[in-house]
Each structure stands twice: as structure tokens, then as C-alpha cells.
Amino acid sequence: MNYDTVIIGAGLAGLTTACHLAQAKQKVALMSTGIGSLVLASGCIDVLGFQPAASQQPVINPAKQLGAFLTEQPEHPYHHLGQAKIEASLGAFLELVEGYEGSFDKNWLLPSTAGAVHPTCLAPKALAQGELSQGGSMLIVGFKELRDFYPSLISHNLNAQNLGVQSEAITIDAPPPLRERMNITPIELAHAFEQAEFRQQIVTEIRDKVKNCNRVGFPAVLGLQQHATVLADLERQLGRTVFEISTLPPSVPGRRLFEQLRHYFLQHGGRLTIGSKVVDGTIESGRVSQIRIETASRLQAIKAQNYILATGSIFGGGLQTDNEGRVWEAVFNLPIEHETNRHAWFDKGFLAPQGQPVARYGVQVNDRFNPVNSQTEPLATNLHAVGGLLANSVWTQGRTGDGVAVATAWRVRELLG
Amino acid sequence: MKKSTEILIIGGGATGCGVLFDLAQRGFKCILVERGALSMGTSGRFHGLLHSGGRYAVNDFDAAVECIEENNILRKVIPHCIEDTGGLFVSVPGDPLDFTDKFYFGCKQAGIPVEEIAIAEALRREPLLNPGITRAFTVPDGSVETWEACRTLTESAAEFGAETLVYHEIVDILKSQGKVTGAVAKNTVTGETVTIEADMVVSAAGAWGGQIAHMAGCEVTVYAGKGTMIAMNYRMVNTVVNRCIHPHDGDIIVPIGSVAVIGTTSVKVSDPDNYAIEDWEIKLMLDEGEKLIPTFKKFRALRAWAGVRPLYQDKSAGSDLRDVTRKYTLLDHNSRDGVDGFVTITGGKWTTYRLMAEHTADLVCKKLNVTRPGKTATTVLKNPHKDFAGQYFTLGQRLEKLEKGELSGQLICECEIVTRPQIEHHLAHNDWNIINDLRRDLRLGMGPCQGGFCTYRAAGIMHQHKQLSATQTNKALVDFLQALVDFLQERWKGMSTVLWGQHLRQMQLDEGIYVGLLGLDKLPTELSGTNQPRLGEIETEGYYEIGH
Ligand SMILES: Cc1cc2nc3c(=O)[nH]c(=O)nc-3n(C[C@H](O)[C@H](O)[C@H](O)COP(=O)(O)OP(=O)(O)OC[C@H]3O[C@@H](n4cnc5c(N)ncnc54)[C@H](O)[C@@H]3O)c2cc1C
Ligand SMILES: Cc1cc2nc3c(=O)[nH]c(=O)nc-3n(C[C@H](O)[C@H](O)[C@H](O)COP(=O)(O)OP(=O)(O)OC[C@H]3O[C@@H](n4cnc5c(N)ncnc54)[C@H](O)[C@@H]3O)c2cc1C
Description:
The complex is a heterodimer of chains A (417) and B (548).
Chain A: E1 2-8, H1 12-23, E2 28-32, H2 62-72, H3 82-96, E3 100-101, E4 108-111, E5 117-120, E6 123-124, H4 125-128, E7 136-143, H5 151-160, E8 165-172, H6 186-193, H7 196-210, E9 215-219, H8 227-238, E10 241-245, H9 252-267, E11 271-274, E12 278-284, E13 287-294, E14 299-309, E15 319-321, E16 327-329, E17 383-385, H10 401-416
Chain B: E1 2-10, H1 14-25, E2 30-33, E3 49-50, H2 61-77, E4 82-83, E5 87-91, H3 97-110, E6 115-117, H4 119-125, E7 135-139, E8 142-144, H5 146-158, E9 163-165, E10 168-176, E11 179-187, E12 193-203, H6 209-215, E13 222-232, E14 240-243, E15 252-256, E16 259-263, E17 267-269, E18 276-277, H7 279-292, E19 301-312, E20 328-332, H8 333-337, E21 342-347, H9 353-367, H10 395-403, E22 411-413, E23 418-419, H11 420-428, H12 435-442, H13 454-465, H14 468-471, H15 474-496, H16 501-517, E24 545-546
Parallel strand pairs in B: 1-2, 1-12, 2-9, 5-14, 12-21, 18-24
Antiparallel strand pairs in B: 3-8, 4-8, 5-7, 6-7, 10-11, 11-12, 13-16, 13-17, 13-19, 14-15, 15-16, 20-21, 22-23
Helix pairs in contact in B: 1-5, 1-9, 11-13, 13-15
Bound molecules: flavin-adenine dinucleotide (2 copies).
């Protein structure tokens, strides 16, 4: 089988690229070992949350602050894109998914899992309704059986920051069948929320408490496939705006986003293989000629006109590291500039304001996102790298990880479509 | 604040806790003062091995005899703090064979029950062992739970009326007419000072013994001999495995909880509070580990930490610290320095803490001119878990207790099986908001995932339990957040020395959680790395900066 494009990696970057190219009528295959950080992270699209990156003040208008950010971070992948392309990519992303809200010129300011302010550009409606600048009072509801969400901690932090919202916390027992189950996951709760009776009992339990507040916040577990129905039903029954707050992984909003993108891709004729690892690729006279995937019995070669490398950074598996201080790109062994002294990979502080040096490592590209050598010459003109794999895409710096994934995905679609 | 007592003991390691119990049992009124949590010094940063004495059988005969005698006693008096893992001494190809005979006869002579077993039998017991081993011997090594032991000792002492002050640092020793009359302690949480008057002061401050003696105007040289250890993510052996060679770096693997720990190195450092774990130490131990277990490097290194051996020397120590005796030192400062009312006990081993305590208490009695014989060799200490009275600790007990319903409930730390009721029980009995105490008490966050999820959970439970939001003071909140940041930072120190491959991926997930999802770096705390963490959060395992 010959493809127009083969994409390696089903994280946010790979999936978004896959959807765009499939929409452009290409014959696309997406091969991935796993499903990336999408299903662990918040489910929102952060494009630029803090500038300067170490600042504690959230960015209100990312479009306006982008210039200053680029000056501050002279090597950031956003330099290959610029304002207009990032903006266009967000519009294009909104075409792929349902229920996301937002734009490049305004960040949502949402409560984080600890009650910090999480500035983000695009958010699913249920999370966006937690917008803090709206003020008013909110009740935050948690469940004893859910270990990964602590309403009193969230509420205390929100109140202490004088954000203009007053919040109150309540922790209740999950109704049957989850009651007495001691260790439930967000996904299990999300399934339970899809049952009308389950919701009914929660509504009954908190109805009195809800009277004194404008909004009601839940952990992000308000249904999976039936999410829109669950949300609407709760709002109707409680007579209040209802919103979600992220939990620890696994992330239900992340899972919903993954399912939406996957569905879109398949609907548009894409071929998705999850669970197969791309072990290597061949570059001959400036072009990739094939990649090989691991199957049960042998290595199978796959050929295409173009190849997209979306394997993420160290966490995703795109970069590998070892005890000897080696850092290498996993598929093509592309050159990765790095220190061989492992200690130079890390800062003294876990929460270092400038991020961990190791997070800077990655694939250097030109403006067409072709990987380049140290003389900035493209190594293969039909190979493009996107997302977290790119050099200097340190997502903790200003919270730009999702923006890099979404914007590079769109840029590659422009180049190939 | 003022307090008065008969004997003041400085240092809450195994030795100090042992001295406290011994003296209290002999009828003295005692107070123990520890600057951090119990067992936060060397006693919490050691290798966890209850020595059989085998290690010293060739080079240090007296130490070998002491170890086996104490090993036998401790198995009777604190069985619940000991896991009876047994020990193996094995020769790997290339190890000098003449040593093994010396080892065998040395053990016999010292009274250590040693037995040579067939290679096949050794491999049956420990299937991951190097199949090329040429000889194998069994000895009664074990592993010890230091936090449980120190807790048991101080609680048993309390039944005799003794008092234990943790998070109090001795900042001055009081003297009058050449005699020590007490000391001043500073509460390291509140900053308050407490003056404690005492008839006699016992310094059991280990590697810090020189500093305490200096406050009393005595010059005592205690060198700090740093040793580094690495915890691997899998309990790859169930027996303590020793190389049968002259004591050496990285020649012992001890199974502890759900992990296995390899150690140690031995390097002289000038400051017991500030030393680095160096890359060569990590490399060397992983290489040495492979000699014992050929697949060693396939497992993940979880964290590295170091402790400092208190090494007393009259003259300047040479650079090879293994020559300095591991036996202990008991100093009567009246005969030595003309300062009365002051005694220093330092050096030794965890395994010999009881003996050291007994000799110290004997000296105290002699100086006070009273005859009160010690009874600690025959007093079985209370196991807080009645169902297991008289039994050794086993990994299965934790699960068994939970299955019987004791503090069972929501699982907060999956790796080490820590439940929400256990955490709430701990919080109900401790005033401090120190997350690291949960780790010391319950082993929270000590397993393969290194606290990625359970740190947030424990913090959330602590916040709820202490009803911090009810107080609504921002200071309480900031303090609490700082404790969380400091805890994570201290974990980071232990982890960052051994981060590569899969473990580095795990770290990036933790970063995703604490930075991406929680936004902890955007809450009002001092971002760690530069400031000194609160003492309680200082990592017991996981000292310190990476060497460059
Ligand atoms: C818990 C968490 C919280 C986060 N929070 C934030 C945040 O608040 N703000 C922010 O901006 N960013 C955040 N991030 C980072 C952000 O999610 C990433 O920067 C972004 O999603 C990267 O996407 P990606 O598609 O490039 O890589 P990934 O999501 O890592 O995906 C890589 C994919 O490639 C696959 N793969 C790897 N190697 C191979 C191979 N050899 N063959 C086949 N497939 C392969 C993997 O299985 C995976 O599917 C967070 C990340 C995590 C984990
Ligand atoms: C790397 C390493 C591995 C080891 N492995 C083993 C082993 O496997 N088996 C074994 O038997 N032994 C082992 N040892 C030896 C053993 O750990 C020590 O000998 C023993 O723990 C010392 O106990 P201690 O109570 O005397 O000292 P410590 O445990 O150091 O106690 C001294 C206490 O004094 C406190 N203190 C200091 N200054 C002050 C002050 N101003 N005010 C109040 N308190 C103060 C400290 O905080 C500390 O808690 C090892 C040692 C090292 C370094």
C-alpha cells in the first residue's frame, strides 16, 4: 500500500496533522505505539499562558503578548510560524472538534487541579464555564471515592488569590454503584455520570448547598460520549451554570478530545494503527524512502510520498536517553544537540522557573519543518517534524506545548496540501 | 520556655533513642532532643542492613563479634523492626578465592553461624544472581526498619516518663563552673527557644558530635564519611547479597520494602550537612551491581542518597576511611577535657546501637555514683501491632493488616500500599504539617513511582484533615504549599542524580502533573532550588546536590 503521507505518533500533534491532511483528501496512515500525553493533560489548548515565562501573572491576550514572548525565547519553534499562522491554526483546529471555545486574542482563566490560575486559549465548553474573571460565587464538589481531586484545596487557593470569585467546597459520597468502592478513577466516574439515576442522586444531595452560589464546579468527569447531554441535564436540574476542573490523569476531557480527533480522522478515510512501533526509517539522497514498523513476526516496510515525525519529546518516546549521557532521536537517528554530562540536563530546582535544560533537546528544523543538520541544511525534503519533538519547545516555558503541536500540524498541512 | 530533667540526650538517631530508652528504664528522668524528625540523620540514610558480622569477619574481628552478639539480641527485643531476610556472601568470577576461606573461618571464630551452600541452591534462592558465582555462604543478615525502631524506643521510653522533643535543635550548651548544666534548644518550626536544665548531657549526635562537643568547649574530631546508595525499582533479591571480598564500594544489595538498595561508597567530606553525590559513585555502583546480578542495569534506578558515617579519630584520618575503625567511641569529657556532666557517644553501627547505649548508660551511672544495671538485652519491646507480637516484620504484614480491616480504606500510595485512614491516623497524632513525615512513617512515595500521584493526594488529604481552609489565613496556606514544594524538591534531589531512560520519562510525567495540571509553580511559594527547605522536609534519603 502506498500512502500520500505517513504520520508517526498519535499525540496531539500527530492526530491534528492527520485530521488536516485527511480533510485535504490525502491518503494518510497514522502509526503510533501509544496515545501520547493528550489523554493525560487538561484537554485544553494552551498557546501562551505566561509571559515572561517565569511570571506568575497569566497572559490575558496571547496574540498581543506573542511578540514579547518571541523576543524572550529567541529559539522557540513559534519563530518558524509567527502570529498569523498560529492564529489560522487555531481556527482550523476549531473546525475539527466540537464544543471547543476560544480565540487567539483571549485566554480563558480557569481553575487548575490545585486552584491555581490556568490560562488557556481553547477550552471545551464545560471547562471554559469555570472562567474565573466572571467572578461570583462557586461551589466545588468532590467525591470521597475519587483520590485525585481535593475541592477544599482548590477552593482555599482560589479564595486566597483574591481573584474576585468566592468559592466553597463540598465532598460527598459517590452514589451507588460507586459508593463503597474505594479507589475509583475519573474514567469510571465519567461512565457513571452518563446514568440519569446517578446524576439524580447527586443533584438531590447538593441541591441545598447550590442555592447560595452562581456556579457549580465538578471534577472533569461529566460523561464521555454523552458529555453534552450530561452537562445540559445537570445545568437544567441544578438551575446553575456547571463547569469542570481537570483532575490528575487519566484526563476525561483529554480522552474526549482524543476520541473526537480519532473519529474525525477515520471518517475522512484515514488509517490508524495504534500499538505498532516505528523502529527505523531510511534516508537516501535527501529523501526518506521508507519506514519500518514492528509487527508480531517481522519488520514491515511502509512507503509514502511524505513522512511526518510526531513522536513527542522524551515523555512521548521521540527522544531516548541513557545512563552514558546519550540522547538520540528514536526513528531516524536525527542529530540532537545535547550535553553528554547528564548533570547538565537538569536544574537544581524541580519547579525551576526556566524549565529543565533537558526539555530543550529536540530536532532542529527549517521554516518548512524539515529536520536540518548543523549547517541548517535539510536532511530529507519529504520529512517534517512537528510538536513536542522540536528543539526548544519547552512546554513549561509559558505553557506553549499544545500551541506548538496544533500550529505545527496546521503549517505542515499548508506545506503538503 | 524552661524545662528540667536529670539526663538530656542530644540526637534522635538509633543511638540517641537507644540511650533514652536504656536510661529511662533504669529510672532516670530523661529528655531527648532532635533537630529534625527521629532518624533523620545517618540512621535514616544508611543501608538498612542488620549486620551478621560477616562483613567484618576478616578485617575487624572485634566488630564481627559485636555484630553477631547484637544481631542475636535485636532479633529477640525488636523483631517487628527486623525483616529476617538472611544473607548470602558470594564470590563472583575474578574475586580472590583465598579470601573465601579466611571469611569462612573468621565467621566461625567470631561465632557467626555460617554455612557454605551449593551454587545451585544459591541460584534457586536468588534466581537473578550471577550464575557464574563460584562459592556461596549463608549468614544471618537481616534488614531493619529504622523509623519503626526509633519510634518503638521513644514510645517505650515514654512509658517510663521520658520525653522526646523533635524539631528542636540544640544551639548552645550551658555551663557553670566547668560543668555542663543543660542546653538551649530552638524549635525549628516556630523559632521558639527552650532552655533545658540537666544533671548530665549525653551527646549522641553522630557525625555532628564534634559540633555539639565544641558548644561545650571540648574539641572532638568526628569525620564525616559519606556513603552513597541507590534504590532500584524492583526487589530483585529477597536476601541480603554481599560480595565475599574485602569491604569494597557497591558490594551489598539489601531488599527493603518494594525496592532493592545497592551501596555504598566511602568518601571523607568536611561538612556533614553538605556534600554531593558524584557521578562516578552512581556509575560504579551500577557496574558493581552487574557483577552480582547480570541484569542489574535493566532495572530502573529510582533515587540515590547518601549518609555520613560518624568516624571518630584522635589523629587525622587517612584518605581511606575503611581503615578507620567502625567500632564506637564513648568519651567522658571530665577525664578527657576537664568538663564534667557531659558525655559523647559516637561512631559505631546501627546494628550495635543497643550495646553503645548500654555502655553509655553504664558510664552515666558510674559518673552519678549509682548502681542500676541495664536490662535492655532482655527486654522485649512492644510491637504496636498486637497481631504480630514476637514476629519479624514481613512485607506481607502490611497487606494482612489491611485485609483484617486495620486502617484499611482508600489506597493513596499504590506502590507501598498506604491508605487514607493510615494517613489520617498519622495526621491525628502529629501536629506538624510535614509531608515527609508521612514518608518516614508510612513509606508513602518510596516505591517505583516515587510519589508522582500520591504526593498530591497526601497533600489534599492533609489540607482537608487539618481544616486549613477553615482558618482562612493565607499564612497557613502558604506554609502548606511551601511544604508541598519542599517535599517535591527534596524528592527531586534524590531522583535527579539517576535520571535517564524510563525514569526520566516518569519525571516528565510528574512535571506534567505538578506544573501542567496543578500549576504549583504559579502559586505563591518560594520556588525551590535556591532556598533552604524546612528541616522536616529535608530528604532523609536523597541528600544532596549533584556533583559536577
Ligand atoms: C500530564 C501532562 C500535563 C501537561 N500539561 C501541559 C500544560 O498545561 N500546558 C502545555 O502547554 N503543555 C502541557 N503538557 C505538554 C503537552 O501535552 C505536550 O507538549 C503536547 O501534547 C505534545 O504533543 P505531541 O503530540 O508532540 O507528543 P506526545 O503527546 O508525546 O505524543 C507522541 C506520540 O508518539 C508516539 N511514538 C513515540 N515514539 C514512537 C515510535 N517510535 N513509533 C510510533 N509511535 C511513537 C507515542 O506513542 C505518542 O503517541 C502536558 C503534558 C503532560 C504529560
Ligand atoms: C552510607 C552508610 C551506610 C550504612 N549502612 C549501615 C548498615 O547497613 N548497617 C549498620 O548497622 N550501620 C550502617 N551504617 C552506620 C549507621 O548508619 C550509623 O552508625 C548509625 O546510624 C549512627 O546512628 P547515630 O544515632 O549515632 O547517629 P545519627 O543517626 O546521625 O543521629 C544523630 C542525630 O543528631 C541530630 N543532631 C545533630 N545536631 C543536632 C543538634 N544541634 N541538635 C539536635 N539534634 C542534632 C541529627 O539530626 C541526627 O538525627 C551506615 C552508615 C552510612 C553512612
